[in-house]
């Protein structure tokens, strides 16, 4: 049974989420304060976290940041904040998805299952692949088994989605991909609404981590009016 943590200060919303997820076979715990939710998340044992942004004691952005520093567990932000800057900030801190309130409970469960399935598949691949299955390209070394990335032989930490995006681009070099295509392939959901912000933030994060000068990227190139490609 997969264990989920809901960090939500509205008891009505939290109870509705919890009841629906319980009905679909999940084990669910709820925290109503940011600091309480962070403490529970850092204790481990959760397969996915649903996180509100407007929380007492510690806002959801800080909770997301501190969880991501310690774990790659999928984090789904569930918030009424609709501005693109809020989504960009959330993805920039390592969130895997951003669900707007009000939301359909069926959609919530579908997204939870999709992220759980993708995360398990990636972890399973890492456990089953041999160490020799690594990629070396342009000073970047990717160890598939351990999901570790080295730039000029210095290990650089990547979130789950940053790693997925980098691996996809590296294994498809010199091909141009639209933002919509990347969103669909990496996030695996209907690319409506937040796809451009999601991809833009993650491309920026990749450049910060692998480029010598992120303002003049040599690896992850922008093809204006089309999308992005990884150069070799």
From TrEMBL:
InterPro entries assigned: CheY-like_superfamily (IPR011006), OmpR/PhoB-type_DNA-bd (IPR001867), Sig_transdc_resp-reg_C-effctor (IPR016032), Sig_transdc_resp-reg_receiver (IPR001789), WalR-like (IPR039420), WH-like_DNA-bd_sf (IPR036388)
Designated name of the protein: DNA-binding response regulator
4-aspartylphosphate modified-residue sites: 52
Ranges of residues in domain OmpR/PhoB-type: 132-232
CDD domains with a match to the protein in the record: REC_OmpR, trans_reg_C
Record's keyword terms, sorted: DNA-binding, Phosphoprotein, Transcription, Transcription regulation, Two-component regulatory system
Keyword DNA repair annotated: no
Molecular function via GO: DNA binding
Keyword Transcription regulation among record annotations: yes
Source domain of life: Bacteria
DNA-binding region as annotated in the record: 132-232
Coiled coil: none
Domain Response regulatory: 3-116
Organism: Paenibacillus glycanilyticus
